[in-house]
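target protein:
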Amino acid sequence: MPKSFFVEQAESLMEPFFADLQAMVNIDSGTYVKAGVDRLGLWLQRRFQGLGFDTYFDEQQEYGNHLVAVQRGNNPQGARLLLIGHMDTVFPADEAVRRPFSRTQLDGIAIAKGPGVLDMKSGVLIGIYAVQLLLASHLANYQSITFVCNSDEEVGSRSSRSLIGKLARESDAVLVLEPGRIVNRVVSARRGIANYRVEAHGLSSHAGVEPEKGRNAILELSHQVIALQAINGTIPGATLNVGIIKGGERTNIVPDYAYCDIDVRVSDRAGLKAIEEAMRQVTSHTVLDGTSIVLSGGVSNMPFERTEESLKLVRLAQQVGAQLGLQIEDVSSGGASDANTTAGLGVPTIDGLGATGGLAHNPDEYIEVDQLPVRIALVSGLLQRLCE
Protein backbone atom coordinates (compact mmCIF):
# COMPACT_ATOMS: atom_id res chain seq x y z
CA MET A 1 0.00 0.00 0.00
CA PRO A 2 1.53 3.39 -0.97
CA LYS A 3 2.44 5.63 1.93
CA SER A 4 0.11 8.33 0.63
CA PHE A 5 -2.84 5.96 0.17
CA PHE A 6 -5.16 7.59 2.70
CA VAL A 7 -4.18 11.09 1.54
CA GLU A 8 -4.99 10.19 -2.06
CA GLN A 9 -8.30 8.70 -1.03
CA ALA A 10 -9.15 11.71 1.13
CA GLU A 11 -8.29 14.11 -1.69
CA SER A 12 -10.74 12.31 -3.92
CA LEU A 13 -13.49 12.97 -1.36
CA MET A 14 -12.99 16.69 -0.87
CA GLU A 15 -15.98 17.72 -2.97
CA PRO A 16 -18.50 15.75 -0.86
CA PHE A 17 -16.57 16.72 2.27
CA PHE A 18 -17.12 20.42 1.60
CA ALA A 19 -20.76 19.81 0.72
CA ASP A 20 -21.19 18.09 4.08
CA LEU A 21 -19.26 20.79 5.91
CA GLN A 22 -21.35 23.54 4.34
CA ALA A 23 -24.54 21.75 5.38
CA MET A 24 -23.27 21.42 8.96
CA VAL A 25 -21.96 24.97 9.33
CA ASN A 26 -25.16 26.45 7.95
CA ILE A 27 -27.18 24.81 10.72
CA ASP A 28 -27.23 27.13 13.74
CA SER A 29 -26.15 25.02 16.69
CA GLY A 30 -25.16 27.34 19.51
CA THR A 31 -25.23 25.54 22.84
CA TYR A 32 -28.50 27.20 23.86
CA VAL A 33 -30.15 26.82 20.44
CA LYS A 34 -31.60 23.39 21.20
CA ALA A 35 -33.70 23.19 18.05
CA GLY A 36 -30.63 23.86 15.91
CA VAL A 37 -28.44 21.37 17.73
CA ASP A 38 -31.14 18.74 17.40
CA ARG A 39 -31.44 19.50 13.71
CA LEU A 40 -27.70 18.99 13.29
CA GLY A 41 -27.95 15.77 15.30
CA LEU A 42 -30.58 14.42 12.92
CA TRP A 43 -28.40 15.37 9.94
CA LEU A 44 -25.44 13.52 11.47
CA GLN A 45 -27.61 10.55 12.34
CA ARG A 46 -28.50 10.11 8.66
CA ARG A 47 -24.83 10.47 7.74
CA PHE A 48 -23.78 7.79 10.22
CA GLN A 49 -26.58 5.46 9.22
CA GLY A 50 -25.44 5.75 5.62
CA LEU A 51 -22.13 4.23 6.75
CA GLY A 52 -23.82 1.36 8.54
CA PHE A 53 -23.75 2.76 12.07
CA ASP A 54 -26.43 2.01 14.62
CA THR A 55 -27.53 5.23 16.29
CA TYR A 56 -29.49 6.51 19.24
CA PHE A 57 -30.09 9.82 20.99
CA ASP A 58 -29.55 10.57 24.65
CA GLU A 59 -32.43 13.01 24.93
CA GLN A 60 -32.10 16.25 26.87
CA GLN A 61 -34.46 18.98 28.00
CA GLU A 62 -32.20 22.00 28.38
CA TYR A 63 -29.54 21.20 25.77
CA GLY A 64 -29.61 19.44 22.44
CA ASN A 65 -29.88 15.66 22.34
CA HIS A 66 -26.55 13.83 22.38
CA LEU A 67 -26.00 11.49 19.42
CA VAL A 68 -24.29 8.11 19.82
CA ALA A 69 -23.34 6.09 16.73
CA VAL A 70 -21.82 2.60 16.86
CA GLN A 71 -20.26 0.65 13.99
CA ARG A 72 -19.30 -2.98 14.51
CA GLY A 73 -16.07 -4.04 12.85
CA ASN A 74 -15.00 -7.43 11.56
CA ASN A 75 -12.79 -8.42 14.51
CA PRO A 76 -14.81 -9.49 17.60
CA GLN A 77 -11.59 -9.48 19.64
CA GLY A 78 -10.34 -6.20 18.27
CA ALA A 79 -10.05 -2.72 19.72
CA ARG A 80 -13.05 -0.79 21.01
CA LEU A 81 -12.47 2.80 19.91
CA LEU A 82 -14.31 5.94 20.98
CA LEU A 83 -14.30 9.17 18.96
CA ILE A 84 -15.66 12.36 20.51
CA GLY A 85 -16.82 15.55 18.84
CA HIS A 86 -19.29 18.22 19.89
CA MET A 87 -22.08 19.70 17.83
CA ASP A 88 -22.53 22.94 19.75
CA THR A 89 -20.82 26.24 19.06
CA VAL A 90 -20.35 29.40 21.12
CA PHE A 91 -22.40 31.53 18.73
CA PRO A 92 -25.94 32.88 19.16
CA ALA A 93 -29.04 32.06 17.16
CA ASP A 94 -29.13 33.09 13.49
CA GLU A 95 -25.34 33.43 13.30
CA ALA A 96 -25.25 31.08 10.29
CA VAL A 97 -27.77 33.29 8.52
CA ARG A 98 -25.58 36.34 9.08
CA ARG A 99 -22.36 34.71 7.93
CA PRO A 100 -22.90 31.31 6.30
CA PHE A 101 -20.18 28.91 5.19
CA SER A 102 -17.73 30.44 2.74
CA ARG A 103 -14.37 29.70 1.14
CA THR A 104 -11.79 32.39 0.61
CA GLN A 105 -8.08 33.21 0.98
CA LEU A 106 -6.03 34.39 3.95
CA ASP A 107 -2.47 35.49 3.25
CA GLY A 108 -2.46 33.31 0.15
CA ILE A 109 -3.80 30.24 2.03
CA ALA A 110 -7.12 28.67 1.04
CA ILE A 111 -9.48 28.74 4.01
CA ALA A 112 -13.11 28.05 4.87
CA LYS A 113 -15.10 30.16 7.32
CA GLY A 114 -18.40 30.06 9.18
CA PRO A 115 -19.69 29.64 12.73
CA GLY A 116 -18.18 26.54 14.28
CA VAL A 117 -16.23 25.56 11.18
CA LEU A 118 -13.07 25.03 13.26
CA ASP A 119 -14.53 24.32 16.68
CA MET A 120 -15.55 21.78 15.79
CA LYS A 121 -17.81 20.81 12.92
CA SER A 122 -14.86 20.08 10.66
CA GLY A 123 -13.41 17.85 13.39
CA VAL A 124 -16.56 15.75 13.58
CA LEU A 125 -16.51 15.43 9.81
CA ILE A 126 -12.81 14.48 9.75
CA GLY A 127 -13.64 11.59 12.08
CA ILE A 128 -16.51 10.46 9.89
CA TYR A 129 -14.43 10.55 6.71
CA ALA A 130 -11.52 8.79 8.43
CA VAL A 131 -13.78 5.87 9.30
CA GLN A 132 -15.31 6.00 5.84
CA LEU A 133 -11.83 5.47 4.35
CA LEU A 134 -11.25 2.44 6.59
CA LEU A 135 -14.56 0.91 5.56
CA ALA A 136 -13.94 1.56 1.86
CA SER A 137 -10.49 -0.02 2.15
CA HIS A 138 -11.79 -3.09 4.02
CA LEU A 139 -9.65 -2.20 7.03
CA ALA A 140 -12.37 -2.28 9.71
CA ASN A 141 -10.26 -4.60 11.87
CA TYR A 142 -11.78 -3.40 15.12
CA GLN A 143 -14.43 -4.70 17.44
CA SER A 144 -16.32 -1.42 17.41
CA ILE A 145 -16.01 2.28 16.70
CA THR A 146 -18.32 4.52 18.70
CA PHE A 147 -18.91 8.19 18.02
CA VAL A 148 -20.44 10.47 20.61
CA CYS A 149 -21.52 13.88 19.34
CA ASN A 150 -22.50 15.90 22.37
CA SER A 151 -24.40 19.15 22.51
CA ASP A 152 -22.96 21.03 25.47
CA GLU A 153 -19.16 20.88 25.38
CA GLU A 154 -18.86 24.64 25.13
CA VAL A 155 -20.44 24.96 28.59
CA GLY A 156 -18.44 22.18 30.18
CA SER A 157 -20.38 19.10 28.98
CA ARG A 158 -22.75 19.48 31.90
CA SER A 159 -25.32 16.96 30.68
CA SER A 160 -23.06 14.76 28.56
CA ARG A 161 -20.18 14.08 30.94
CA SER A 162 -21.75 10.98 32.48
CA LEU A 163 -22.57 9.57 29.03
CA ILE A 164 -19.03 10.20 27.82
CA GLY A 165 -17.66 8.60 30.97
CA LYS A 166 -19.79 5.50 30.47
CA LEU A 167 -18.72 5.10 26.84
CA ALA A 168 -15.07 5.72 27.72
CA ARG A 169 -15.09 2.97 30.35
CA GLU A 170 -16.27 0.59 27.62
CA SER A 171 -13.43 1.61 25.28
CA ASP A 172 -9.76 0.79 24.85
CA ALA A 173 -8.73 4.19 23.49
CA VAL A 174 -10.28 7.60 22.93
CA LEU A 175 -9.67 10.01 20.06
CA VAL A 176 -10.96 13.56 20.58
CA LEU A 177 -11.49 15.61 17.45
CA GLU A 178 -11.00 19.11 18.85
CA PRO A 179 -9.18 21.53 16.50
CA GLY A 180 -5.56 20.86 15.69
CA ARG A 181 -3.01 23.61 16.20
CA ILE A 182 -0.95 23.16 13.07
CA VAL A 183 -0.87 20.21 10.73
CA ASN A 184 1.87 18.32 12.58
CA ARG A 185 0.57 18.77 16.14
CA VAL A 186 -1.68 16.77 18.42
CA VAL A 187 -2.67 17.40 22.04
CA SER A 188 -1.45 15.01 24.72
CA ALA A 189 -2.28 16.99 27.87
CA ARG A 190 -4.77 19.59 29.05
CA ARG A 191 -4.94 21.47 32.29
CA GLY A 192 -7.72 20.68 34.69
CA ILE A 193 -10.21 23.36 35.69
CA ALA A 194 -11.63 24.04 39.13
CA ASN A 195 -13.95 26.81 40.27
CA TYR A 196 -14.33 28.11 43.80
CA ARG A 197 -16.34 30.70 45.67
CA VAL A 198 -15.13 32.46 48.79
CA GLU A 199 -17.92 34.09 50.83
CA ALA A 200 -17.34 36.65 53.56
CA HIS A 201 -20.01 37.16 56.23
CA GLY A 202 -20.03 40.22 58.46
CA LEU A 203 -22.62 42.37 60.23
CA SER A 204 -24.63 45.20 58.72
CA SER A 205 -25.12 48.57 60.35
CA HIS A 206 -25.80 52.18 59.46
CA ALA A 207 -22.68 53.53 57.73
CA GLY A 208 -23.21 57.06 59.07
CA VAL A 209 -24.85 56.71 62.46
CA GLU A 210 -23.06 53.70 63.99
CA PRO A 211 -20.52 52.22 61.57
CA GLU A 212 -18.49 50.88 64.48
CA LYS A 213 -21.22 48.30 65.16
CA GLY A 214 -20.83 46.81 61.69
CA ARG A 215 -18.41 44.21 60.39
CA ASN A 216 -17.55 45.04 56.79
CA ALA A 217 -17.67 41.85 54.70
CA ILE A 218 -16.17 43.61 51.67
CA LEU A 219 -13.15 44.70 53.67
CA GLU A 220 -12.63 41.19 55.00
CA LEU A 221 -13.02 39.74 51.53
CA SER A 222 -10.46 42.23 50.21
CA HIS A 223 -7.88 40.81 52.61
CA GLN A 224 -8.82 37.31 51.51
CA VAL A 225 -8.52 38.19 47.80
CA ILE A 226 -5.02 39.60 48.23
CA ALA A 227 -3.89 36.48 50.08
CA LEU A 228 -5.60 34.11 47.64
CA GLN A 229 -4.20 35.83 44.57
CA ALA A 230 -0.73 35.58 46.11
CA ILE A 231 -0.99 31.78 45.77
CA ASN A 232 -0.80 32.17 41.99
CA GLY A 233 2.59 31.15 40.68
CA THR A 234 3.69 29.36 43.84
CA ILE A 235 2.62 25.83 42.82
CA PRO A 236 4.19 24.24 39.72
CA GLY A 237 1.72 23.86 36.85
CA ALA A 238 -1.07 25.65 38.71
CA THR A 239 -2.63 29.08 38.31
CA LEU A 240 -5.26 30.95 40.31
CA ASN A 241 -7.29 33.93 39.18
CA VAL A 242 -9.85 35.86 41.22
CA GLY A 243 -12.17 36.83 38.38
CA ILE A 244 -15.38 38.09 40.01
CA ILE A 245 -15.98 40.00 43.24
CA LYS A 246 -19.33 41.29 44.47
CA GLY A 247 -20.75 42.65 47.70
CA GLY A 248 -22.95 45.24 49.33
CA GLU A 249 -26.35 46.65 48.46
CA ARG A 250 -26.21 50.36 49.35
CA THR A 251 -23.39 52.77 50.12
CA ASN A 252 -24.97 53.80 53.43
CA ILE A 253 -24.97 50.25 54.82
CA VAL A 254 -21.92 48.47 56.17
CA PRO A 255 -22.09 45.33 54.02
CA ASP A 256 -22.66 42.02 55.79
CA TYR A 257 -21.95 39.83 52.75
CA ALA A 258 -19.50 39.67 49.85
CA TYR A 259 -18.08 36.95 47.65
CA CYS A 260 -15.50 36.29 44.98
CA ASP A 261 -15.29 33.59 42.31
CA ILE A 262 -11.97 31.98 41.46
CA ASP A 263 -10.70 30.10 38.42
CA VAL A 264 -7.97 27.51 39.06
CA ARG A 265 -6.03 25.60 36.39
CA VAL A 266 -3.82 22.63 37.22
CA SER A 267 -1.55 20.37 35.21
CA ASP A 268 -1.84 17.37 37.50
CA ARG A 269 -3.67 16.02 40.52
CA ALA A 270 -0.78 16.86 42.81
CA GLY A 271 -1.10 20.52 41.84
CA LEU A 272 -4.85 20.40 42.48
CA LYS A 273 -4.32 18.98 45.94
CA ALA A 274 -1.63 21.54 46.74
CA ILE A 275 -3.58 24.57 45.59
CA GLU A 276 -6.73 23.48 47.41
CA GLU A 277 -4.72 23.10 50.62
CA ALA A 278 -3.23 26.56 50.12
CA MET A 279 -6.71 28.05 49.66
CA ARG A 280 -7.96 26.31 52.79
CA GLN A 281 -5.03 27.72 54.74
CA VAL A 282 -5.85 31.28 53.61
CA THR A 283 -9.59 31.03 54.30
CA SER A 284 -9.22 29.26 57.64
CA HIS A 285 -8.82 32.57 59.49
CA THR A 286 -10.11 36.11 59.17
CA VAL A 287 -8.47 39.50 59.57
CA LEU A 288 -11.47 41.38 61.02
CA ASP A 289 -13.03 40.22 64.26
CA GLY A 290 -16.66 39.22 63.92
CA THR A 291 -16.41 38.04 60.32
CA SER A 292 -16.38 34.53 58.89
CA ILE A 293 -15.31 32.93 55.63
CA VAL A 294 -16.79 30.02 53.67
CA LEU A 295 -14.85 28.30 50.86
CA SER A 296 -16.82 26.14 48.43
CA GLY A 297 -16.46 24.66 44.97
CA GLY A 298 -14.11 22.18 43.38
CA VAL A 299 -12.85 20.61 40.20
CA SER A 300 -15.04 20.59 37.10
CA ASN A 301 -12.52 19.04 34.68
CA MET A 302 -9.81 16.73 35.96
CA PRO A 303 -6.42 17.34 34.35
CA PHE A 304 -5.60 15.39 31.20
CA GLU A 305 -2.14 14.27 32.21
CA ARG A 306 0.52 12.72 30.03
CA THR A 307 0.71 9.05 30.96
CA GLU A 308 2.61 6.17 29.45
CA GLU A 309 -0.64 4.80 28.01
CA SER A 310 -1.62 8.08 26.36
CA LEU A 311 1.92 8.59 25.08
CA LYS A 312 1.59 5.25 23.27
CA LEU A 313 -1.14 6.91 21.21
CA VAL A 314 1.18 9.83 20.51
CA ARG A 315 3.89 7.45 19.30
CA LEU A 316 1.37 5.71 17.02
CA ALA A 317 0.37 9.11 15.64
CA GLN A 318 4.04 9.90 15.08
CA GLN A 319 4.48 6.67 13.13
CA VAL A 320 1.50 7.51 10.96
CA GLY A 321 2.71 11.08 10.58
CA ALA A 322 6.11 9.88 9.37
CA GLN A 323 4.37 8.03 6.54
CA LEU A 324 2.63 11.29 5.65
CA GLY A 325 5.84 13.30 5.73
CA LEU A 326 5.00 14.90 9.07
CA GLN A 327 7.06 15.06 12.23
CA ILE A 328 4.23 14.92 14.74
CA GLU A 329 4.67 16.97 17.91
CA ASP A 330 2.51 16.62 21.00
CA VAL A 331 1.60 19.75 22.92
CA SER A 332 -0.35 20.65 26.04
CA SER A 333 -3.25 23.08 26.26
CA GLY A 334 -4.48 25.37 29.01
CA GLY A 335 -8.11 24.80 28.02
CA ALA A 336 -10.17 21.75 28.87
CA SER A 337 -12.14 19.44 26.59
CA ASP A 338 -13.94 16.11 26.85
CA ALA A 339 -10.47 14.54 26.79
CA ASN A 340 -10.15 15.66 30.42
CA THR A 341 -13.09 13.43 31.31
CA THR A 342 -11.86 10.32 29.52
CA ALA A 343 -8.22 10.71 30.54
CA GLY A 344 -9.33 11.37 34.11
CA LEU A 345 -10.88 7.90 34.08
CA GLY A 346 -7.57 6.37 33.09
CA VAL A 347 -8.57 5.61 29.49
CA PRO A 348 -5.75 6.24 26.96
CA THR A 349 -6.67 9.47 25.19
CA ILE A 350 -5.30 11.69 22.44
CA ASP A 351 -6.79 15.04 21.42
CA GLY A 352 -6.36 17.82 18.89
CA LEU A 353 -7.01 15.59 15.87
CA GLY A 354 -9.37 18.00 14.13
CA ALA A 355 -8.76 20.57 11.43
CA THR A 356 -5.96 23.11 11.48
CA GLY A 357 -6.85 26.78 11.48
CA GLY A 358 -7.27 29.65 13.87
CA LEU A 359 -9.40 32.22 15.71
CA ALA A 360 -11.69 29.67 17.40
CA HIS A 361 -14.69 31.31 19.12
CA ASN A 362 -14.17 34.38 16.94
CA PRO A 363 -16.40 35.55 14.08
CA ASP A 364 -13.39 35.14 11.78
CA GLU A 365 -12.80 31.51 12.78
CA TYR A 366 -11.35 29.51 9.89
CA ILE A 367 -9.85 26.19 8.80
CA GLU A 368 -7.01 25.60 6.36
CA VAL A 369 -8.49 23.82 3.37
CA ASP A 370 -5.34 22.25 1.89
CA GLN A 371 -4.47 20.44 5.14
CA LEU A 372 -7.77 18.56 5.41
CA PRO A 373 -6.76 15.43 3.43
CA VAL A 374 -3.63 15.05 5.58
CA ARG A 375 -5.62 15.39 8.82
CA ILE A 376 -8.17 12.82 7.60
CA ALA A 377 -5.32 10.50 6.65
CA LEU A 378 -3.72 10.98 10.07
CA VAL A 379 -6.91 9.91 11.87
CA SER A 380 -7.48 7.00 9.46
CA GLY A 381 -3.92 5.81 9.92
CA LEU A 382 -4.12 6.12 13.69
CA LEU A 383 -7.33 4.10 13.77
CA GLN A 384 -5.72 1.47 11.57
CA ARG A 385 -2.66 1.26 13.86
CA LEU A 386 -4.91 0.90 16.89
CA CYS A 387 -6.65 -1.99 15.16
CA GLU A 388 -3.30 -3.69 14.73
User: Anything to note?
Assistant: The longest strand covers residues 192-201.
